Amino acid sequence: MIKKAPPAAVVLAALLGLVACTNPTGKSWAISYEVTGSGTASGITYSQSVDRYQDDSTQHQLTGPLGLPWKQDVIISAGRDASVTATPTGNVTLTCRILLDKQKELAKATSPAPGKPVTCSKTTDD
């Protein structure tokens, strides 16, 4: 039986996929961001990896008013920063948390004063 070589387009696509993959093992972390407090948030910014096979991460910016509590589940590539910042609407105090697998607390912070933003950040393990 004679085997045919794969079409050039298939070979090229496979090679481009290997070049574009900056995290070939797919090692990443399931992260949950939480923001709590009374009232609403006027803005929340958080980081998220594009996908588990890319080391790049993007910043997402949400504008409010955003109801609290607020939660978001994301993927963060190993060795990258997980971060969330929330700005309160009005003169209230907010708290943020970063959780691993929705259970283990990696970071927690409270606004330094009423009306001030709160930031939580943690670099994930490699």
Task: Tell me about this structure.
- This protein is mainly β.
- It contains one helix and eight strands.
- The protein has one helix spanning 8-20, and strands at residues 28-37, 40-49, 57-67, 70-77, 81-88, 94-100, 104-110, 118-123.
- It has a four-stranded antiparallel β-sheet, with no helix packed on it.
Mean pLDDT: 84
The succession of helices and strands, N to C, reads HEEEEEEEE
Number of helices: 1
Spatial shape:
elongated
Set down the secondary structure blueprint.
Layout: H1 8-20, E1 28-37, E2 40-49, E3 57-67, E4 70-77, E5 81-88, E6 94-100, E7 104-110, E8 118-123
Antiparallel strand pairs: 1-4, 1-6, 2-3, 2-5, 5-8, 6-7
Gist?
This protein is mainly beta and 126 residues long. It is built from one helix and eight strands.
Name a few traits of the molecule.
126 residues; 1 helix; mainly beta; 53% strand
